[in-house]
UniProtKB/TrEMBL annotation:
It comes from the Bacteria. Pfam families: AHSA1. This is SRPBCC domain-containing protein. Belongs to the AHA1 family.
Length: 161
């Protein structure tokens, strides 16, 4: 399994997921930079994502939605705050309205995705930091850990296909 570690730090309001993939840093970057590829692995397998707008450049906005098995759409929004191609990127992550505006009353997070060569592949470190322990707990109660883990666990098979 690609996910090798999940750490929840209530004091730092964060969750960190570490995964290892049988690919190069450049190949993993390509996956995250290309919305059509990202759609194949982003979100839990039963909630596929559709990226409406996506460009990994600082200052850009990513708009997407995940679709439930019942057909319900759950929009999301990223504001890209930093890009270090091919080593990773940072962004603000929001639950969104159907018009892709940040949804009021739902937790947002500051995220960093870091990609490092291991010599045998790539180690990816995914960090999400929330505004409070309560916000972290709210997304954990929504199933964020399980959803993110099942999403990340799809990546290795896609990259090596």
């Amino acid at each position: 399994m690609p996910v090798i570690e999940v750490t929840k730090d209530v004091d730092a309001y964060s969750i960190t997921i570490v995964a290892e993939f049988s690919a190069t840093v450049e190949r993993l970057w390509e996956l995250y930079a290309d919305p059509r590829q990202l759609e194949k692995v982003f979100g839990p397998p039963t909630y596929p994502a559709t990226f409406v707008e996506h460009e990994l450049t600082e200052g850009s906005t990513t708009k997407y939605f995940m679709t439930s098995p019942e057909g319900e759409k759950y929009p999301g929004l990223w504001r890209i705050t930093g890009v270090d191609r091919p080593n990773g990127f940072t962004f603000e992550d929001f639950f969104a309205t159907e018009n892709f505006e940040p949804a009021e009353g739902l937790p947002a997070s500051e995220c960093s995705y870091l990609f490092e060569s291991t010599g045998e592949g790539v180690r990816a470190t995914y960090v999400s930091v929330f505004a409070s322990a309560g916000a972290l707990q709210e997304v954990l109660d929504m199933g964020m850990e399980e959803g993110a883990t099942s999403s990340i666990d799809q990546i290795d098979a896609f990259l090596t296909a």
